[in-house]
Amino acid sequence: MEWQPDILGAPFAQLTLPLGDDEEGPVVATLVRSLPALPARVVGPLAHVDVLAVHGWSDYFFQPELARFWTSRGARFHALDLRKYGRSLRPGQTPGDIADLDAYDEDIEAALTAIGHGAGAVTPPRRRLVLLGHSTGGLVLTLWAARHRGRAQALVLNSPWLELQLGAIGRQALAPLVAARARVEPRGAHPMVDLGYYTRAQTEVGALPVPGYREDWRPARGFRTHPGWLAAVLTGHRRIAAGVDVGCPALVLLSARSTPPLAWSEAMTSSDSVLVVDDIARAATRIGHVVTIARIDGALHDVFLSRPEPRATAFRTLAEWIRPTINVVHPA
Length: 332
Fold this sequence. Notes:
This protein has 332 residues and is an alpha/beta fold. The chain has a single domain, classed as Alpha/Beta hydrolase fold, catalytic domain (Rossmann fold, 3-Layer(aba) Sandwich), CATH 3.40.50.1820. It contains 9 helices and 9 strands. Strand 4, helix 2 and strand 5 form a beta-alpha-beta unit. Helix 4 packs across helix 7 (227-242) and helix 5 (167-184) packs across helix 7 (227-242).
């Protein structure tokens, strides 16, 4: 395996991580990296930090500004396009298809091994590991951290999908029906529910388009969902509701408010039109012992793709939280 030039151009590079085959053919994940330049990588306040970011549903990594936040402070930034997403999506594959969120352990472990944080390391890495997850990626990383306590030193969640939009009661009612259909028709089609308003909101605030953006990897109305995938997500939500412990400090960044995506509204340009943020805030209190919840006024679902002012607030909040958090225990 060798690092290759990435579609985002320098300083980004990508590494293909083979994961074997399934019934749709060869499966891979793709690791994207951006390394800090001198002098940041020597004297930056986060020069001893490695970051691994995981995207959300119907998404992939395309945000150089997010990488620059970390590399300008000396951290080594990595983003993972999970199997069947973005750079990892191969012809004939069902986009985003997964029957068990725990299966992403393979993708994450392959990425961590490539950046020096693999489980098989002879000695613990001297560098600190920060996990950064958005939406479904936030759910995946929360569950992973809870199953692998001690591997990460900090968890940053950008509007993590920790609860279904119907709330706990709706989830409990829906889950048995989804599970039954998933057993019979795991890749059956669901009605399209994304009307493209979230992508429109990102365009309206100037976050899209950006160089290297691929609409086929991030369609405006999202990938079609399937019973097997939804059953896996609902199982993850049930685990969160029961309570987990990620084993490290966590920062949860959320918009201050939600707007139901029923019809286009200008309010969608300053709120989360994907998740019910109040429900996510409540669910976030069940993921660990030290959880900081920051509500960003005017933010979209991806707080780092909001208008300049809330985006700057989100980055400032992250900067103020991460430096003292990650430096509580210095590497040996």
